[in-house]
């Protein structure tokens, strides 16, 4: 069976398809150093949950991340950077909101866009020199990446900045995917979204969604709005340089 990736998850699966799990939950850890190989997770959800639920373990953990798209590596570096930021630099509440926006929203606040722009610039200045990068980001190492891969990471980080990608009309791209996915059912919006939320998802045991929030996400790509603010800026961490170069 031939599957058209552009009509399914897309050429890049920005998010994992399973709930976050603690990778150590089923194991009794009695080693000083633990190496974990993470293949195709798409995001940092499992790494973050595993670490957060293992704070009482004295072992040292090393997570080796393997992805088929360099954009996913870049996104996980970003997610881990936010998670590892000291509270004195970014409070827990602000950190959580920023993480949720950059992780799951197609449109973000202007302040979050500015933070992403500044962080991308810092990554660009250090990524090609592993010694400098490791000094500024002690919890993340790119030593095992080839020079070519670090160059590709640099290109990816550049697309996160306004000056390198001034026009990123993600709302149009999102709507195009919705049209492609729904086909003739597109004209039934918002009823089709209400049906999916109230029937399809609830039949699968999912009860945490509200129809209004679910419909907003399906139509706009905005999943999280923890603040009463304007979510109008494009989330450039969802851009790929291979399509905008």
From TrEMBL:
<feature type="domain" description="DUF4470">
    <location>
        <begin position="14"/>
        <end position="108"/>
    </location>
</feature>
<dbReference type="InterPro" id="IPR039304">
    <property type="entry name" value="DNAAF3"/>
</dbReference>
<dbReference type="GO" id="GO:0070286">
    <property type="term" value="P:axonemal dynein complex assembly"/>
</dbReference>
<keyword id="KW-0970">Cilium biogenesis/degradation</keyword>
<dbReference type="Pfam" id="PF14737">
    <property type="entry name" value="DUF4470"/>
</dbReference>
<dbReference type="InterPro" id="IPR028235">
    <property type="entry name" value="DNAAF3_C"/>
</dbReference>
<keyword id="KW-0963">Cytoplasm</keyword>
<dbReference type="Pfam" id="PF14740">
    <property type="entry name" value="DUF4471"/>
</dbReference>
<dbReference type="GO" id="GO:0120293">
    <property type="term" value="C:dynein axonemal particle"/>
</dbReference>
<comment type="similarity">
    <text>Belongs to the DNAAF3 family.</text>
</comment>
<dbReference type="InterPro" id="IPR027974">
    <property type="entry name" value="DUF4470"/>
</dbReference>
<feature type="domain" description="Dynein assembly factor 3 C-terminal">
    <location>
        <begin position="141"/>
        <end position="243"/>
    </location>
</feature>
<dbReference type="GO" id="GO:0044458">
    <property type="term" value="P:motile cilium assembly"/>
</dbReference>
<protein>
    <submittedName>
        <fullName>Uncharacterized protein</fullName>
    </submittedName>
</protein>
